[in-house]
Each structure stands twice: as C-alpha cells, then as structure tokens.
C-alpha cells in the first residue's frame, strides 16, 4: 500500500544567505533530505506560504545609469516619484539642464538653456530607459521629448528559482524553466507581500539524491533582487509517497526517507 508522509520546513533568507544584504541567493540544507530509497515512490515540493518584504528599490543597480553626450551618470538608488526623481537627476547633471513633466501625457521633456545635447538612449550603458520613458533611439536637440511614459512602478513579479529541481515553469522573458514561485507584487513599498498556496500546486522532485539546494530570487530578466538587508520567509512542504512494508521502526519522516521502516 502506498502512503504519504508530509513535513514542513520554515526557511529564512537570513540563514544560508550567500550574497550578503541582497538576501537573494540562499543555500538551503534540510535534514533528512534524501529520496533515493527503493520504497519511496515519489517526492513532491510545494510552497505553503511566503512573506516577502517589498524592500527593493525602484531605481536599483540594474537601471541606474543615464548617458548624456556619451558620458554615463550613475543615479542615486532609491524609491522615487516623478518629482523627487527630477530633483535627484538634475542635481547630478551639469548646470543648465531642466526636466518638465506633463501630468496629461505622463512624459518628460528635457531642455538645455543654451547648448544642443544628445541623450544616448541606444547605448548599452543606458539602463534607466524604462523609468524615464526614453525608448532606444538617441535624442538630440536643445529640447527633446521622451517618447514613452515614465514608469515608477516597483517590480511587478518576483521569481523564486532553483535549478536543482527542473520544475518546467517556463519564463518567456529569459527562456528559463527553473521558477517554482512566480510571486505577484501586490503590496505597497516597505510592506509585506503575502503568498498562500490556495491552488495546492506542487512539483515533482526528480533528483532523488539531492541533499541541499540553492534558491535565487530574481526579476523576469534573471537579475538578482536586492532586498537591502531585509530577510524573506517561506514555508515549504515535502510530501513523500512511500510503499508501506512491515513496520520495524516508527514511521517518522526521517525513518521513511532513510529506509528505516
């Protein structure tokens, strides 16, 4: 007869974190995590719930460079609205530049009082394009209108990944298939994103010899999220389908996965 044994594991990125204050690469070492015994039929992993801080910045290490007249300016990381952003970037640039924001079109116009200039939006060093609405074509003139709307929306989705499990959850943005929790960001800044597994979704663990694994947390482009030193929490559940044999030991999770039944 096949029976199922379940165990919960409470994880924190504060334990096993391998990229410092980013808190987005975590080595997980779980007790009793071996599933290669013959009497084990299947092993499944699921996320029961997660509590993730919305502590990452809108302007961060992935999108904080602006290229003007072939000179790259590094913007101050942080959370902004359009007005505080204009104040910040104007202070970084040479004297004479101004930005005008239209609340009707939600677009920016950049102007210099005397000298034509070029915004090098096509440069690979220009990473702030989506925030400022720059597009990908260079803009030249005494006054240039940026083609797209500004975007001060935080990350819309956070992806929890592990290449150890081969989950088959395909991401069209970067072509990856290692996501086990694509988490919708439904919380305000500096608050908690809560997730509960209401659909009871779970993944088959294919590598029966696994003893530890690494969780990475990224955006859709595969870039690590910087949680700025604030830990996230997660509870995972492992279900073991096992073939019941003559009982010789107590049916604990440890005895089952280690063949002591």
Question: Which secondary structure elements does this structure contain, and how are they paired or packed?
Answer:
Layout: E1 2-12, E2 25-29, E3 40-53, E4 65-68, E5 71-74, H1 82-92, E6 97-102, E7 107-112, E8 117-119, H2 129-132, E9 139-141, E10 143-145, E11 157-161, E12 179-184, E13 192-196, E14 203-204, E15 212-218, E16 233-243, H3 253-257
Brief write-up:
The chain has three helices and 16 strands. By secondary structure, it is mostly beta strands.
Protein described:
The chain is mostly beta strands. It folds into 2 domains: 2-56 and 155-257, Jelly Rolls; 65-145, no CATH class. It contains 3 helices and 16 strands. The strands form 5 sheets. Strands 1, 3, 13, 14 and 16 form a 5-stranded antiparallel sheet that branches. A 4-stranded antiparallel sheet has the order 2-15-11-12, with no helix packed on it. A hairpin with a 2-residue loop joins strand 4 and strand 5. 23% of the residues are buried.
Q: What characteristics describe this protein?
A:
Jelly Rolls, 5-stranded antiparallel β-sheet, 16 strands, mainly beta, 4-stranded antiparallel β-sheet, 261 residues
Distance between the termini: 14 Å
Q: Kindly estimate the percentage of residues that lie in beta strands according to DSSP.
A: 35-45%
CATH level 1 name of the largest domain: Mainly Beta
Number of helices: 3
Number of domains: 2
Q: Return the CATH architecture of the largest domain.
A: Sandwich
- What is the number of E strands? 16
Task: Indicate the mean pLDDT.
Answer: 89
| Outline type | elongated
Helical percent range? under 10%
Quick one: biggest sheet?
5 strands, antiparallel
Structural class: mainly beta
| CATH T-level topology of the largest domain | Jelly Rolls
- Poorly predicted parts: none
């Amino acid at each position: 007869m096949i029976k199922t044994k379940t165990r919960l594991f409470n994880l924190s990125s504060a334990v096993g974190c391998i990229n410092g204050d980013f808190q987005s690469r975590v080595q997980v070492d779980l007790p009793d995590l071996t599933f290669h015994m013959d009497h084990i039929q299947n092993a499944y992993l699921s996320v029961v719930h997660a509590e993730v801080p919305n502590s990452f910045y809108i302007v961060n290490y992935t999108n904080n460079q602006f290229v003007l007249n072939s000179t790259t300016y590094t913007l101050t990381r942080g959370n902004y609205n359009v007005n505080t952003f204009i104040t910040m970037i104007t202070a970084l640039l040479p004297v004479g530049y101004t930005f005008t924001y239209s609340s009707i079109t939600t677009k920016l116009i950049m102007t210099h009082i005397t000298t034509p200039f070029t915004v090098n939006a096509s440069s690979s060093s220009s990473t702030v394009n989506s925030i400022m609405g720059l597009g990908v074509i260079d803009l030249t003139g005494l006054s240039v209108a940026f083609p797209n709307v500004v975007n001060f929306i935080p990350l819309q989705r956070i992806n929890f990944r592990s290449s150890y499990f081969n989950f088959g959850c395909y991401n069209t943005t970067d072509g990856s298939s290692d996501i086990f929790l694509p988490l919708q960001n439904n919380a305000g800044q500096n608050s908690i994103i809560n997730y509960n597994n209401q659909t009871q979704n779970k993944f088959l663990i294919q590598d029966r010899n696994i003893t530890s694994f690494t969780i990475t947390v990224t955006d859709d482009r595969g870039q690590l999220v910087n949680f700025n030193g604030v830990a996230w929490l997660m509870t995972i559940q492992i279900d073991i389908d096992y073939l019941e044999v003559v009982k010789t030991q107590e049916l604990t999770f440890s005895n089952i996965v280690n063949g002591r039944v």
